[in-house]
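LAB NOTEBOOK - FOLDING QUEUE
OPERATOR: T.R.
BATCH SIZE: 2
PURPOSE: Compare the predicted structure-token outputs for two unrelated chains run back to back under identical settings.
PRIORITY: normal
REVIEWER: second-year student, initials M.K.

ITEM 1
FIELD SEQUENCE / FIELD STRUCTURE:
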Amino acid sequence: MKTMLKLALLAGAAWSAAATTAIAQDAAPAGADAASGQVAVDELVVTARRREETLKDVPIAVSAFSAETLERQAANDITTLSQTTPNITVQTARGSNSTLISYIRGIGQQDPLWGYEPGVGLYVDDVYVYRPQGAVLDVFDVSRIEVLRGPQGTLYGRNTIGGAIKYVTNRLGDEAGGKIRGTYGSYNQTDLLVEGHTPVGGGLSVGSAYALYKRDGYGANLTTGAEHYDKDVQAYRLSAEYKPNDDLFFRLAYDRVEDDSNPRHGHRELPALVGGYKVLDAYDTQAGLGDKNAVKTEGLSLTGEYHASEFLTFKSITAGRKGHTQTLIDFDGTPLPTLDVPATYDDRSFSQELQAVYSDDTVQGVFGLYYMNSQASGEFDTIAGNLGVSIADGGKVSTQSFAAFFDVSANFTDRFKVSLGARATRDHKRSNTFRFFYLGATRSPYQGGTPRPILQVRTNYSAEKTFEEFTPRLSASYELTDDLNTYVSYSKGYKSGGWDMRGDAFLTPQTVEGYDPETVNAYEVGLKGNLFDRRVSFATAAFLSKYKDQQVTTQVVVPSGIASSVDNAGASTLYGVEFEANARFSQHLSGTVAVGYIHAKYDTFSRFVPGGAPNPVNPSQTIPAGGQVVNVADLYGFQNTPEWTGNASLTWRGTVAGGELQVTPMVSYRDDYQQFEQPLPLLDQKAFTLVDLTASWAPEGGRYKISVAGKNLTDERYRTGGYNFGVATYNNSVIGFYGPPRTYSASIEVKF
């Protein structure tokens, strides 16, 4: 079945090309319809290289989705990108409602704990979103979303070793307008979106957007009666734009997200050894820790542009962000305090970026300086009932990051271009980390528990380090024709080092030394462009990445609790291919297809195993006191990295009842993938297919629109994360977290 689906996706790509060829051959003379725009694909302008370019001209693997495309996909939030973009995983973190986990081409970071760096950068209007909490962005007030695959260290910095996701909001312009959209759907989904903007004179415009997302749970907490997998989110955006003349532009923007959805405690994949607790429906739980959860994030940014001449523009981006999270995860999924984790996270950051953008007929480029001062802190308890203790882990990481960068393209001929870029980064980090054992399986004093003395200090240290890296980029592109562009590129990515916030210095003494940066050297060749009088746009890419000093978080159950370590595991090789295409078959029919393949294999994986734990190479042996480094490359694989991903959709447009009707069926496929580096059959996800269908109708003039959507129509059950504590000490707690079930919704939108 899996092979059939792969072949079907590839056959779909070939069918699209063949059908388009046939249509092009039977159509009117070249350029006749294309010139009128009736049967040509839209040309999307992106800012992947911090300057405006068409997709065809960018020597980078970029997927771009306009607001119209996202609406046809019924994209509620950016996790939809996992369905539509090759070789990418974008999903809600395990045990969370709005914390983001992203992987591109096998590179990312699953652990959202403070102090750890993500491997995929998230940007809202060129402002870096420093922490993943509250970063599952709902799609509203959006112009487009760009996905840049492969290292983007030259232009975007240290935490884009896998790639970058750019969320670009709408500019206000100089005309008044707005819209209201209401949605009702399955599980009592009730959404409201209100947007508006207006000029107020003298080159000043103001705008705002408000979104409310409410939904009952897909399941229930059978212990407390609360909704489980519900949604209760409010989001705000306020902005003001000032353009006194053609040479000056300023934008002040504020955003805030409040997520009061109940905590997600997950699903027991095995029955409990004590208490008789059975395996329930995928969305139900019997967790007893509680239902309080609150995530608040907000940011303020000021962007200024000065067009100094026809060729030169100066740009400044100043931003501040902060967030607070109070959450609970009951890892055993029962009323017993076997493995309960209440947690608090706080973060804040300030950044300043200065750019000079130059463009003439021969040379185009950007030069810049970047500074960020950030702090991430938190504390969480591990309440271990069978051990009779509560373990308090906490600390703070402060980072000052400086960078200078450039990226310049030169036209050697009308068709041959060479681009050269580089970034020099200096990260200075300070860390305070503690791990205390308290007697009694109740909350520690840090989480509001009964004040009591520390039973044992396992970790308590301060550390300071400076990390420096130079990340170059080189590409050459050649236009085969006016519509076809081919390129080759090399780029280096970098993610800075740090310290394990869960580290237990008693079990793993080396934790106080921290871990080193990781790097990747990536090579790519691509072909992209338009065919058949722009009836088809396509992009292909083949890549090879050599990944070194990978930072891997591992948690191992030992007699005294759970031992955590972050290791620079070793090295790996990743290679693959990607294909994307948009086709306009006729005035009424269009389609898209995307296919990705990746082969990810560890060359070496040196894992530190603490004393008392089983030897992973030979489980019948126990690691001696003091621990031991073991090479487990042959046993481990990449997490969140399906070998195959694919997507195909068709859109039919036609006049019905005096208005335009659009109908879009979409199918997406994800191959088998692991939740962690170590294979875990109870948690690892088998290949699955999602089927969606959307339809909309708008009268002539488009002042209002009626839409319906069906998501996951075959009602697939698929895991997006999990935890493995399947031993007697933790009552056989193997926990899975699941993606949404089948849902339906209907919306009405009114523009004014």
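ITEM 2
FIELD SEQUENCE / FIELD STRUCTURE:
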Amino acid sequence: MAKTTFTGSMRLVGCFVLGIILYHTVGHGFSFAGETVAFFLLLFLVTGYLALKRPLTRRRRWAGLVGLGVIIAFSFWSTFLKNQIETLPVPSGAITHYKITLVKAVGVKPASVSSVGRVEAIRAQGKWHPAKGQVAVFFPRSAKADSLRYGQQLLVKGSLSPPKAPANPYQFNYKRYLALKHIQWQAYLPDQHWVPMGYEPPSYVVALSLQVRKRLENAFKEQITSHREVAIANALVLGVQDDLDAALRNAYARTGTMHVLAVSGLHVGLLYGVLLLFLKPLRRGSSGRLLVFLIILAVVWFYAFVTGLSASVLRSVCMFSLVELGNLLRRRSSILNTLALVAFGLLLYEPNYLLDVGFQLSFLAVAGIVLLQPLFLALWHPEHKLVRFFWELLAISIAAQLATFPLSLYYFHQFPVYFWVANLVAVPLTSLGLYLGVAFMALFWVPIVSTWLGKALEGTLWLLNELLLWLEHWPAAVLDGFVITPGQVLALYLFLLCGLLFLLQKRLAWLSGAVLCLAFISGTELAEAQSQRRSQELVIHSVRRSSAVSLLQGRQVSFIADSSFLAQPLQFTYQVQPYWWAKGVRQENRFEATFLKTSPKLGFALHETPEGNKLVVWKGKRLLWLQNKPTLTMQPVSLDAIVLQHNLRLPAQKLQEYFSVKTVILDQTNSRNYVTRTTAELKAAGFKVHVLEEEGAWQIRL
């Protein structure tokens, strides 16, 4: 019976997921979603009536298939409705002012303050118009910006601008990320561009929750003196990651323990587990079970409340609440069924959760633990309690890592080699830290007790941080640079499934399936490697206030960058490295000098002119980086492109006298006023102009 119920749950969730995927892959331009649902529903009523009138197996099968079609069509339709783009009543360029209400928690980071504003009204041509939509807002740090809170109403001077598409090849698509959260615009707002108007939170429950969380943040800061440990305490216990510095975040990511900082199913599960342990003696009779049920619900929902009612915590709390409800009713519940029910409810509320990385990884991790940990525990039964404890922790870590391994490769392009060691350290210390943190939240108002709890928590987190920073520097701690396709992700999951089934059932059919999956992955990798070896590309990257160029020959690259770019390693990580990894480049020596010397192996030469300009000759193409006025020659120098830099004032007429060239590129070392003025002048003179900041990277492929 349980197996039948689980199969039915998976069919329901699977069809709903299929409808969401269909919309996001092929359905954006389809405008008959509602009519499709009506058609399938009518067809289901007809086939269902025929099956009831004459219950033949063939008719029941057809009715069942049409019923699944109804679910797919309904899922497609609900996703279509959720992703309708709000349109403005006037052109965005005509907007001079707009009113917003902050509808997300305000994040305060070292250099900026951020939130999401719900647009209430816009002003154009002296008149106010009602409007709908959301805008991602960013403020420079100031006392005025730091005072912002959820529910704050603002009057903003300026227009609404849509997010820009990725500026460089294979760069993270922030525009799509915002679109999946139904955010249509973004704005950077210095203090002089906005004024507070009032306070009207969309939800007073959420507002109170965030106020309580802020009070607890301040309580942690009062009792924990170390900035590093208080940042981890806020992340671990409250889910606030604003104060985490890049080095510490990187250490957790590279050791495979980043999940302990994202308040989610792990934290709620640890809390639920310790409650079960202490409340077990009370679970006697119907009144005892009811008391335990009420206590557990009160504690886990209070924890969700003080962590800001985030989506990751809410889905975990819902799942454990349903499990405990089954215990109250003395119904044997399957965690997988409960997981499927929670997933269906969340996707029904917000279909775009399916494409959220946290949603995918958390559900897969829980499913992996439920399905795989018992298999690992069945392989070995240690008699010693301490050995059994660590073996169970290791089994949980391996099960969760296996279940999320393909998706982690797809999204993060890296694999932490020592995750199993790191989690043996992180899970016990995280559990202790969480329990101390929850005790501190309950007793922070008691002077002596809160001080001792704060010191104990600080010591625990100090030990956790030091051990993970040590593990991060073990040899070959992280394998990175993996770039795989969605098809390879599916093949990896099928490979893992077939491999496990072969180990359990010893059937050659499962081994054959695993071999076929491995052959598909290997074949696609070989085809991609062959394509990469033939690549010949030059890319002038769009990088903030600097200049950077990649010259690709197969899986080898030469990199040219100015000193401004070299001083900002994160620019390389986010704007250049994804392109290198996608092209199979793995070399570690990224930067040798401000400008690299001639490299005959990669088919390019770099020359410096007497005026200090840089000329690159690559595969017969000639590009000049022009930052100083050139010297006039007898005949115009023939070039394929010129890159104007550092606001060089050179009239279009002079440019035509000096060079025979059609394409002019303006990089981001130039000011915006210069770019606007020069672009208009060059286009009027017949030049083809490419502005890196607006149009993204410029490429040549051979």
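REVIEWER COMMENT (ITEM 2): The CA atoms of residues 51 and 59 lie 5 Å apart.
FOLLOW-UP: none requested
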